[in-house]
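Example 3.2
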Amino acid sequence: MKGTPNIRTQGQSSYEYFIARPKSGGERPATSIQLAGKMLEVSVSLRLWTIGLILVFSLAGCAEKNITASIELSGLNYRDIGISDFSVDGYGGHSIFPNGGGGAFVCCVTIPRKWHAGMKVKVRWVEDADVPGAWKERIVEVPEYTERDIGTFAVHFYPDDTVKVLVTTKIIGHPEYPYPRPN
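Structure, written as tokens:
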């Protein structure tokens, strides 16, 4: 077979023929063991690259999962006038009787799972939805919260049109609730 490098020998696979055929310098073809070793190297490298890519994409996916939480929205009205409707960053709330609230929950408002400094929301409310232009609006800073505090987004409306918000798992009346009902 010497001098005829383009002819396959009996029992030689196509892979062996193309990989093991003599080069132009008359070099000897690779042995089956050498070929197996090369195939193993390629196979291991390919597997490692595949595993690496899978890990990278998996970690990227995990990093993006659970960045936000959707939690119930509840309003508390400490005013002598009812609130017909309210919203937080466009997420609709519910109507609240004068000096009432806290018992109704609407799903949902979306917040970051991790609080960051300077975090604010836009709270809009109206006492009578039938009066055009009667909507009031406040930009309110969200106080610091932790992952364990994520439960309800509570909006507090005070008689002087001050609005406070809170991400909490506690209810009004709890000893650690930071916004007591005004007298």
